[in-house]
C-alpha cells in the first residue's frame, strides 16, 4: 500500500485491549501506520427499532463526514449488530475508492454460534474484516482468489480466506 495512514476508531462500547491488538495486526499486515482512537458516543441514534439492529449506512456516513480525513483511511469499529436494507446483517462495509469504512465485532465471536470463546480466532476474524474494508477503500472489489477480498457470508468464510491481498489485488493497488 502507498503512504496512506489508517485510523481505527471505536464507537460505543469496545474493548481497548482488543483495539490495540487489532491495530498492531493491521499495521503488521499492511505495513502502514495505524492510529487508534476511542469515541465514547451513544449509538442509539443508529438503532432501528423494527430490525433491532444498527443502521450500517447511517454509521458509515457519519464515519466519513465526522471522522475521516483526506490523507487517511478511517475504519469505524463497533460491537453492535449492523444491517443494511438489502441484507440480514453485515460484518462491515466501506466506500469503494473512499476514505471510510466500518466493521463490527458482533457476529465474529464463537459464542454467538454456541461454541467456546476463542480470543485469537476473534481477533483474526476482525483483522481480516478490517483489511477487507480497507481494500475497498483503496479500490479493490471482491476477489475469487485465496485473498482477503473474498466476500464472506459466514464466519467460516472468513476463517478460510487469507488475511492478505492476493498477487492480483496487490498489483492493482500498486498501479
Ligand atoms: Zn466486501
Ligand atoms: Zn485478490
Account of the 3D structure:
This protein has a single domain, classed as Collagenase (Catalytic Domain), CATH 3.40.390.10. The chain is of the alpha/beta class. It is globular, with a radius of gyration of 15 Å. Helix 1 packs across helix 3 (119-137). The longest helix has 19 residues, at 119-137. The chain is 34% helix and 23% strand. Strands 2-1-5-9-8 form a five-stranded mixed beta sheet, with helices on both faces. It has a four-stranded mixed beta sheet with strand order 3-4-6-7. Strand 6 (82-84) and strand 7 form a beta hairpin. It has helices at residues 16-30, 56-67, 119-137, 155-160, 167-174, and strands at residues 5-11, 34-39, 47-48, 53-55, 72-78, 82-84, 87-90, 92-94, 100-104. It binds zinc ion (2 copies).
Number of helices: 5
- Strand proportion, as a percent range, falls in 15-25%
Largest sheet data: 5 strands, mixed
CATH superfamily: Collagenase (Catalytic Domain)
Q: Rough shape? A: globular
Low-confidence segments, ≥5 residues, pLDDT <50? none
- What is the overall pLDDT average? 95
Structural classification: alpha/beta
Approximate helicity band: 25-40%
For the record, the CATH architecture stands as 3-Layer(aba) Sandwich
Number of domains: 1
Task: Report the span from N to C terminus.
Answer: 10 Å
Assembly level:
single chain
Widest sheet: strand ordering: 2-1-5-9-8
Radius of gyration: 15 Å
Strand count: 9
User: Which ions and ligands are bound to the chains?
Assistant: zinc ion
Order of helices and strands: EHEEEHEEEEEHHH
Which fold name fills CATH's third level, the topology?
Collagenase (Catalytic Domain)
